[in-house]
Design goal:
The protein is about 25% helix and about 25% strand. With about 230 residues, the protein is α/β, with parallel strands linked by helices. Strands 6-7-8-3-9-10 form a 6-stranded mixed sheet. It has a 4-stranded antiparallel sheet with strand order 2-1-4-5, with no helix packed on it. The chain is globular. The C terminus is likely disordered.
Length: about 230
């Protein structure tokens, strides 16, 4: 579902320069519309994760501005679900699978607050969706990398976000769950704006309506095939 002319995220002349002087990109003008499914690809070190962190406002741009909009008006926050790369998570942290998923509830001001029935139901259905019902009480240090990735996916989607940002969602996911993951993403795309970073967009390309290439610059690919940068000029 693509609803044109309804911008939800807008980057205007955005750039970032690190303390060591390195600048992945600058002067970026880029907007995401409600209902977009944006696939982002590019080489390692090209700036994909940096772009996501700017979009999420986890990084502040050195220049330019990142703006969130709702119904055409600028707002400070959006309901955004975020699946980071697994290596950004400390597996030794003493938390269970269920607590990871529950931490995605937007109403939780602290992790161990008293859950209402609606929240409990959301946790149960999300654990079932990502296939972790039997592991709900396991600590994240006891589960596999693929299972942790699924728990983090559950955390990202439990609140039914307006925007879902996925950074390499296929990383560590076992092959037995991969087809299920594609189906979950396809179902979410019917009512959620999605921004997805992946090295391999062979399947994702069939679901996405837009393709962004990041390699020291950011440009949108209009070619029929999206695997070679030169195809997208």
């Amino acid at each position: 579902m693509h609803l044109p002319q309804k911008k939800i995220i807008e980057l205007n002349n955005v750039g970032i320069t690190y303390s060591n002087g390195r600048s992945p990109f600058s002067g970026i003008d880029f907007a995401v519309d409600e209902g977009d499914f944006v696939a982002v690809t590019g080489p390692n070190g090209g700036g994909k994760t940096t772009l996501l962190r700017l979009i999420l406002k986890l990084l502040q741009p050195t220049s330019g501005k990142v703006t969130y909009r709702r119904a055409g008006k600028e707002v400070k926050q959006l309901n955004i679900g975020y699946l980071p790369q697994k290596n950004a998570i400390d597996s030794s942290f003493p938390i269970t699978v269920e607590e990871v998923v529950a931490s995605g509830l937007k109403s939780t001001s602290k992790l161990f607050h008293r859950l209402n029935q609606e929240e409990k139901n959301a946790i149960v259905s999300t654990l079932e969706l990502v296939g972790l019902t039997d592991l709900r009480n396991a600590s994240i240090g006891q589960i596999s990398g693929g299972q942790l990735q699924r728990a983090l996916l559950g955390r990202a989607i439990i609140s039914r976000p307006d925007v879902l940002v996925l950074d390499e969602p296929l990383s560590y996911v076992d092959k037995s769950f991969e087809a299920r993951l594609y189906q979950i993403i396809a179902d979410l795309a019917k009512h959620t704006t999605i921004i997805l970073v992946s090295h391999d967009i062979s399947v994702i390309s069939q679901m996405a309506n837009r393709h962004i290439i990041i390699d020291g610059s950011v440009h949108e690919c209009k070619a029929a095939h999206h695997f070679v940068r030169s195809d997208c000029r």
